[in-house]
């Protein structure tokens, strides 16, 4: 059955932390009022020519560029994600600021009511430039946003992955993982192969 994407919602970020020597993530925190998500994959390419013709071509995804737009973003959130000093409702920007690597989570919705949950694991976000105009006869709303690049990520659960998504329309989807997607960062797990009766008999014997 065909379907079309209609929107995006529920954007969250989860800070990377090291726990017992393993890199993992804190509980995701929501950034309210997501307006738009854009992402563009980056590729590494190589080709070879021999005997006056192309005999090898290789292309693979290496990272993803993200562009997130919100109605507004709390100053505290902007400061935390970019490694700024923040206290008493104020943030200071300096040359020593370092954006913190986070997982970025969001949901893509479809016209049939289904959705895909998406996470990019290893992203550093940077605040987009902003401009405002004085109010006149017309009022112009100004959005705020982040851009960033998602790189590959490895820990004790996955190796060299930068994205994971789950489709609610797939009958085989792990419903538990789908429902917990925004409660804690989820990872891909290969399907378990069913053991045949003959293999069980051999094991018992």
Description of the molecule:
The protein is mainly beta and 205 residues long. 19% of the residues are buried. The chain has helices at residues 75-81, 175-179, 197-204; strands at residues 5-19, 22-25, 29-30, 34-50, 53-70, 85-87, 90-92, 102-110, 115-127, 144-151, 163-167. The chain has one domain.
Low-confidence sequence ranges: none
Which class best fits the helix and strand makeup? mainly beta
- The whole-number mean of residue pLDDT values reads 91
Helices, by number, come to 3
**Cα radius of gyration in angstroms:** 22 Å
Helix content: under 10%
Largest sheet entry = 9 strands, antiparallel
Structure summary, number of beta strands: 11
Q: H/E element string?
A: EEEEEHEEEEEEHH
In percent terms, what proportion of residues is strand? over 45%
* Straight-line distance between termini: 47 Å
| Overall 3D form | globular
**Total of domains:** 1
How does the SSE layout of this entry go?
Elements: E1 5-19, E2 22-25, E3 29-30, E4 34-50, E5 53-70, H1 75-81, E6 85-87, E7 90-92, E8 102-110, E9 115-127, E10 144-151, E11 163-167, H2 175-179, H3 197-204
Antiparallel strand pairs: 1-2, 1-3, 1-8, 4-5, 5-10, 6-7, 8-9, 9-10, 9-11
List keywords for this structure.
two-stranded antiparallel ribbon, mainly beta, nine-stranded antiparallel β-sheet, 205 residues, globular, 3 helices
Tell me briefly what this model is:
This protein is 10% helix and 47% strand.
């Amino acid at each position: 059955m065909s379907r079309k994407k209609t929107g995006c919602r529920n954007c969250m970020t989860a800070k990377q932390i090291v726990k017992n020597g393993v890199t993992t993530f804190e509980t995701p925190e929501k950034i309210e009022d997501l307006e738009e998500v854009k992402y563009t994959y980056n590729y590494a390419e190589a080709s070879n020519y021999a005997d006056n013709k192309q005999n090898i071509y290789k292309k693979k995804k290496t990272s993803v560029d993200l562009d997130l737009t919100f109605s507004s973003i709390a100053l505290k959130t902007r400061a935390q994600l970019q490694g700024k000093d923040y206290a008493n409702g104020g943030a200071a920007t300096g040359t020593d600021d370092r954006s913190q690597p986070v997982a970025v989570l969001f949901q893509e919705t479809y016209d049939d009511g289904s959705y895909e949950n998406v996470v990019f694991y290893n992203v550093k976000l940077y605040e987009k430039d902003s401009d405002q105009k004085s109010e006149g006869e017309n009022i112009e709303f100004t959005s705020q946003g982040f851009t960033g690049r998602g790189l590959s990520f490895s820990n004790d659960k996955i190796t060299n992955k930068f994205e994971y998504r789950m489709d609610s329309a797939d009958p085989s989807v792990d419903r538990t993982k789908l429902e917990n997607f925004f409660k804690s960062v989820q990872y891909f797990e290969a399907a378990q192969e069913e053991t045949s009766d003959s293999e069980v008999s051999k094991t018992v014997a």
